[in-house]
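user: can you give me the structure for this one chain? tokens are fine.
assistant: on it. calling the predictor now.
[tool input]
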Amino acid sequence: MRRISNGLILGLALVVLSACTSPEPEAVDLLLHTGKVVTVDDAFSIQQAVAVRDGIIVEVGGNDLVDRYVAAETIDLEGKMLMPGFNDTHLHMSGDPIREIDLTETFSIAQLQEQVRAKVEQLGEGEWVTGYGWAEDVFSEQRVPTRADLDEAAPRSPVTLTRAGGHSAVVNSLAFSLAGITDDSPNPDRGIFEKNERGEMNGIIRERQELVGRLVPRATREETRPSFIQHL
């Protein structure tokens, strides 16, 4: 009877001991610990450690994560702050109309003129030509494009090309005419019509380029869909 009792006690002891044994640490790729981890949750709580696997956060918590995970790479933050990466949320997602020219890789006014001529040939004379992304800083001529430059490239098609940053545009004479803007037009509210030394419009509109841009026909969803998907 005593042998049975001793055996039973030994068996129970083994069960208890096995239950108390810590589970094997879980494998992760990266473990950061001993830091001030800004979670940006609803309570804006601060934790100490982060476990990451396959580029995904597995768990955020205290330094006890060190005992629960084994990592290929471990980083001691030494009390430094760790926070979610910054994300640019100031986006203007859109597709490009057929009439639009990408000017972000344009490095001279001569090249810009060729792009305008090519677009006029594609669309046909009389159709609006638009574009975005030019910057005089990178032009070999080291100056802004002018109304005269666009008139030379597209005398019978209205053109408006927005500068990189979106705060100004250059337009040609036909675009000015369609918008009812002349050399005698005063500066618009919160905007500027740049003029040359003779008092003539040089083609640059600052901050109020929509005075011309609003005349451009809106592109259809079907027209912009392919480029919209490409930009995603």
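assistant: here you go. Residues 24-87 form a domain with the Urease, subunit C; domain 1 fold (CATH 2.30.40.10). The CA atoms of residues 179 and 212 lie 6 Å apart.
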